[in-house]
């Protein structure tokens, strides 16, 4: 028999990586990560009123919705198999004040939406945020006193807000404010109120990022913001600090951890999953979404392909799920097979 050994066989030791890539069936058989509808959490924006679907200019394809329209949209999400939604309010400017007191109104927009959605679509999870930025007149996530975001007073308030959100039917509290001690305080507050079954998804590593711009337009806080959020968000330069922050949240009782933003912080996703083993999520934030949408609208990229690729990358980086404004679009695509 003629020896057909090639120089490449000698160089590689007869190990050829392309053997497993040679056909569609082999590529499918050895694929390491897959994106499914179970990986998706859909963030939605709420506005007061009824019958309102208000497109957000900075986020093509994303709308602010009144509660009744949000209920209809969430029904579709549930029918597509999306496990959970996350709600964010754009409340009236006249209700915003220095302390974000509207966050403590039992019938505020967030709680009304939670109650309505839970009644109409009981089989979908509802994740709510207790950060004060949608409710403050200065756009900060906490209470502003003499130019300083006061930590402990803010924590006291967000604990009260968390209990009210749980009372309204929230399944998971996801505090994005980055105040010290908030996870433990919320856990104690929820348990004292009899909400032992309500989970906490910690924004364990929320970075002081430029990727949030379109979101701030969506909830109308961008023009309100006085100063910056560098005194409580994590610097994009600091990975070890982010791990220390996440470790404290784990010790305080977080059930799940989140990295925000997502794509520029895949290394943090991996490090957190490896370090703690808790369910780990990434938030593909508004700036990430808008970049893809804008480039696709200009014909510069294949939007659908990049949409799916970026979400799959989160899975490869160790994430158990992704909060993404693409969720409904992706769920429809996955349903078609």
Automatic annotation (TrEMBL):
It catalyses: 2 5-aminolevulinate = porphobilinogen + 2 H2O + H(+). Keywords: Heme biosynthesis, Lyase, Porphyrin biosynthesis. Its EC number is 4.2.1.24. It comes from the Bacteria. Pfam families: ALAD (PF00490). Pathway: Porphyrin-containing compound metabolism; protoporphyrin-IX biosynthesis; coproporphyrinogen-III from 5-aminolevulinate: step 1/4. One of its GO terms (cellular component) is cytosol. The keyword Lyase applies. One of its GO terms (molecular function) is porphobilinogen synthase activity. One of its GO terms (biological process) is protoporphyrinogen IX biosynthetic process. The active site is at residues 206, 260. Belongs to the ALAD family. Homooctamer. This is Delta-aminolevulinic acid dehydratase. It comes from Pseudorhizobium banfieldiae.
